Amino acid sequence: MNALFKALNDPTRRAILERLRGGPATAGAIAEQFQFSAPTISHHLDLLRQAGLVTSQKQGQFVVYTLNMTVFDELLGWLYQFKS
Amino acid sequence: MNALFKALNDPTRRAILERLRGGPATAGAIAEQFQFSAPTISHHLDLLRQAGLVTSQKQGQFVVYTLNMTVFDELLGWLYQFKS
DNA sequence: TTAATGATTAGACAAATGTCTAAATAAAAT
DNA sequence: ATTTTATTTAGACATTTGTCTAATCATTAA
User: Fold this and answer.
1) Tens digit of pLDDT for each residue in B19-60?
2) Where is the HTH arsR-type domain (chains A, B) (predicted)?
3) CB < 8 Å to A15, chain B
4) Which of A28, A50, A60, B68 is most buried, taking the most CB atoms under 10 A from its CB?
């Protein structure tokens, strides 16, 4: 829960998730879309992975990142308790 | 959007929201439930208010805080784009 | 009108965060 | 074999964050 909110609390990381909505992508392809360095994006991807929001598969020298939406259920569950 | 995720990215603030689910409460009554000082809780309430998650009404020397769930719609809207 | 109560503001400080460059690792290409 | 390409790790650094105590503001009670 903590890791999830932490991961979502950054505009760049949220933008990465939106990017991955269009399909999996390599770390490099993701990094190209942002004005930040590759290590910075790599770090963001790590936080997203820790929260379970993305998964990664190594393909040769590339690492492909894939959106994992099932984690959102956790968030929806938390929100649900506030339903009036 | 930023203020919303920021406000939610803290366990104490989330606990305050859950507390207010049971009904409005004064700043002091809220502070009593946590091990933190009154100024700290006041600061958390301020961040929640900035995000629109709570509203405050001054009643004499007290300040009553009320949960505002309508802001969650914004969050649900953001989540919706990821629906498969 | 003075003192007490409820709450916020101001300022300090340690810890966490987001960014960078340089270095390391791993795979592919020459 | 060597070099290039893709990515991560390590370490540094400025900014933000969460907390505190002390001081201030506002309202109520004596």
Assistant:
1) 999 999 999 999 999 999 999 999 999 999 999 999 999 999
2) 1-84
3) none
4) B68
Residues of A with CB under 8 A from a CB of B: 2, 5-6, 8-9, 11, 14, 17-18, 21, 67, 69, 72, 75-76, 78-79, 81-84
Q: Which residue spans within chain B are E strands per DSSP?
A: 25-26, 54-59, 62-67
Distance A20 CA to D2 C1' (A): 36
The residue extents of the domains of chain B are 2-80
ipTM of the predicted assembly exceeds 0.90: yes
Cα distances (Å, whole numbers) of residue B84 to A10, B5, B21, B36, B63: 23, 22, 30, 42, 43
How many whole angstroms separate alpha carbon A76 and alpha carbon A3? 15
pLDDT digits (tens, 9 = 90+) for B7-22: 999 999 999 999 999 9
Interface contact A79-B67, CB threshold 8 A: no
CA→C1' distance for B62 and C3 (Å): 18
The correct answer on CATH 1.10.10.10 for the domain covering B2-80 is yes
Q: Is B60 helix (H, G, I), strand (E, B) or coil?
A: coil
